[in-house]
Amino acid sequence: MNTMNTPFKPRRYNDAQKAEAINFCLKEKLSCAKAAQRLGLHPSSLSRWLRQVTLIKEKHYPLIVAC
């Protein structure tokens, strides 16, 4: 099979999987790149998920963002 002509289909992660990856990154105090490498994720995916969570926290809990 020639993979050059096969369209790339990105892997989908559910909210529980994303939360687990984010918690791992924060709990272990790792950079997104290191955590993503250990979890087998693309660094930009984990970075985006973490950024989205941070934006939600800022919107709903502006005084707790520094935690």
UniProtKB/TrEMBL annotation:
Gene3D superfamilies in the cross-refs: Winged helix-like DNA-binding domain superfamily/Winged helix DNA-binding domain
Example of a GO biological process term: DNA transposition
One Pfam entry name: HTH_Tnp_1
UniProt-recorded Gene Ontology molecular function terms: sequence-specific DNA binding; transposase activity
Superkingdom of origin: Bacteria
Official protein name in the record: Transposase
Natural source organism: Synechococcus lacustris str. Tous
